[in-house]
Amino acid sequence: MRLAARLAPNLAPNLAWAIARRELRGGLRGFWVFLACLSLGVAAIAGVGMVRAAIQAGLSEQGAVLLGGDAQVEFTYRFASAEERAYLGQRAEKVSEIAEFRSMAVAGDARVLTQVKAVDAAYPLVGQVALEGGIPLDQALADRGAVMDPVLAGQMGLVPGDIFALGDAEFTLRALLTREPDSATGGFALAPRTLVRLADLAASGLLAPGTLYDSAYRLDLPDGTDLDALEAATKAAMPDSGLRWSDSRRAAPGVEQFVERIGAFLILVGLAGLAVGGVGVASAVRAYLEGKIATIATLRTLGADGGLIFAAYLMQIAVLVGLGVALGLGLGTGLPLLLSGVIEAALPFPAEIALYPRPVMEATFYGVVSAFLFALWPLAQTERIRAAALYRGGVAGLWPRKRFVAATLGLAALLLGGAVVFSGVPTLALGTAGGVAGALLVLALAAWGLARLARRLARAHLLHGRVALRMALASIGVPRAETVQVVLALGLGLSVLAAVGQIDSNLRSAIARDLPQKAPSFFFVDIQPDQIKAFLAQVTANPAVTGVESAPMMRGVVAKINGADAMTVAGNHWVVRGDRGITYADAMPAGTKLTAGRWWPEGYDGPPQISFAAEEAAEMGLKLGDRITVNVLGRDIEAEITSFRAVDFSTGGMGFVLTLNKAAVAEAPHSHIATVYADAAAEAGLLRDLAKAFPNVTAIGVKAAIGRVTEALTAIAQATTLAAMATLVTGFVVLIGAAAAGERARVYEAAVLKVIGAERGRILASFALRSVLMGAAAGLVAILAGAVAGWAVLTQVMDSAYAFDGVSALMIVAGGVLATLLAGLAFVWRPLAARPAGVLRAQE
């Protein structure tokens, strides 16, 4: 063999493959953990990627349906002028006019917030509105008819045929809404939907000047229309109109971005599962190679060099990686395809479940690279071993050559680079990778520290007489115990769960703790200037009201900063995304805290000035003297920043980023808003009295609004928890594999203990204690990692307070103990049943 290798080096790959093929004929025994860990991780990533791609395809293919037309032009606070309407009509085959706003639906004593969509006869240009009973929309909306979301009708106790009011206008409920084709473009809604005819709102008082509403003009364009050119032409034709353009190419950008971000995050959580599986891969490869010591030693004595042996076993691993990835891809793509109908029905936006190439490629990349990353190190150790060392047993403790260390680092960099590219969110990918790497390092150090501590405690005088505990500690501390695999695999899965638990409990605690103390009972909007005095008088006269604040409000867009485009200067900061609430004031409002600059004099009527929220200004890089251009109702107002002030948005009370001097905007159409603080028991009566006196005014219950936000956060938390559970399942598979791999050692250990007089109960107690201690160690480290991650997300991302949740932490530790105990006990019966004579005779 040595001669053949020297004379014909090109035969080495063929020889390596021949050895690998013969080894593989022995079956996959010992590699089921390898395959399970790899296929579970690949399946999770492929499945999430398939659903994400399906939603993206649905949004793209049904863009016109989601938008309600080929393109849409929106205005805030106003309808299109006659000239603007004529311009749009000349370029479109059909135009549909829509208005959207919030209002109170009133029936008897029932007063419920609803999101009203007022439509014309052309609605919908594309798609179909589905109503219960199959009634056509035109018929349902005729003669002051309306349709409602079933949830809203249920809250109000209405059935078709009942009468309800919107403002000063009465409507007849004709049908319940089951599907609204363009609902995904409306963004986050605080209330369920009501559909009425736009013409029927003329006498309602709900669309008065200054009222908060948006108008939209959906365009049915001729085939072949150049959307880019039409967008540019429309903006040029209406330069100061404050219009917002959208078209069917990105009909629901908010939904698209949300799906992209949450999908990327779940895939990165899946990568944490692959990291856990990587521990199982490395353990399986190491255990397999240790079982092949005699075979490798024989090959070395016959003249095979380290490179040939490495190549032979690398080929075996490559075959197994291919099999594991194929199994994972089959599971990850097969389940979504099999359950396509259920998934599409459950999603609130369109999805086209099909076999998409990108998720398959992404999952394959992650699976192959991570598998070789974790398998390379134990494989490379075999290259440096001599035959004599192999016969003395083991491959542990040997460092691979430098080229293999470099290859391992290269694979890690490749995996990280792939995560950055595929996720599309570099900071999230790098943060997740850093968190996983940090958690693995901490867990590895914890495992090493646990082993050292266990060895010391096993010899401590304090434990004399506690035989089972000393035996458990001694077995944890031996150099080749499964301590590292158990703590790494279980600890990482528990860390993800711990982080999710800490975040979820803190959010729920913040809502329960802060809402009754700080938040107002209601926001009242659309109070007209001629109503504000009477409104405040009625509110303050109510003895149940503990506080009220009011301010004039209009909406505007921050268009420019120092003459440059605001998005260019401030990036994607939330203040420059879309329109913002703006107020004005003459004298400085009570309670205002200036952090820099000076307030304008009372009665000031000079060049416009702005007081800006200090924290947001710092985030945007603004300073005193900077000039902000705000577009209000199509009019550009350029104002100088003359002061910064502290604004606390977390209280749920009144807060504006921008406050202008009164003379700058007081003549513009606007309304007032008010926040009212009242005793909880009196809220229903207060709302009823105000709704009777001011039917056009809309009340938004703060608790209800927070409840809807909580529902959205809960849905995200549930998805993240499922991903974390998948990681934990992978960790449990690794635990079972580690327990299975250590079964032979426990058989020998049990035989020795029986010979020296140990009873089966004491041996069982020792094995159980070993599992409990390792699970508790993994759980304790997971609590630390989860607490740090939870603190980082809540304080740095959500800008919220953090408090450690002990109940969640105890559940994590209990889960770790239970998981290791179950895995350990599953393989304890054979060691307990083994006969010492036969076991010890086999070791001779």
UniProtKB/TrEMBL annotation:
- Gene Ontology CC terms: plasma membrane
Q: Where is the ABC3 transporter permease C-terminal domain?
A: 268-380, 724-831
Key words, A-Z: Cell membrane, Membrane, Transmembrane, Transmembrane helix
What broad class describes the main subcellular location of this protein? membrane
Q: How does it sit in the membrane?
A: Multi-pass membrane protein
Q: Where are the transmembrane segments?
A: 31-51, 262-289, 310-343, 363-382, 403-422, 428-450, 484-503, 772-794, 806-829
Q: What is the recorded name of this protein?
A: FtsX-like permease family protein
Q: Species name for this entry?
A: Tabrizicola oligotrophica
UniProt lineage: Bacteria, Pseudomonadati, Pseudomonadota, Alphaproteobacteria, Rhodobacterales
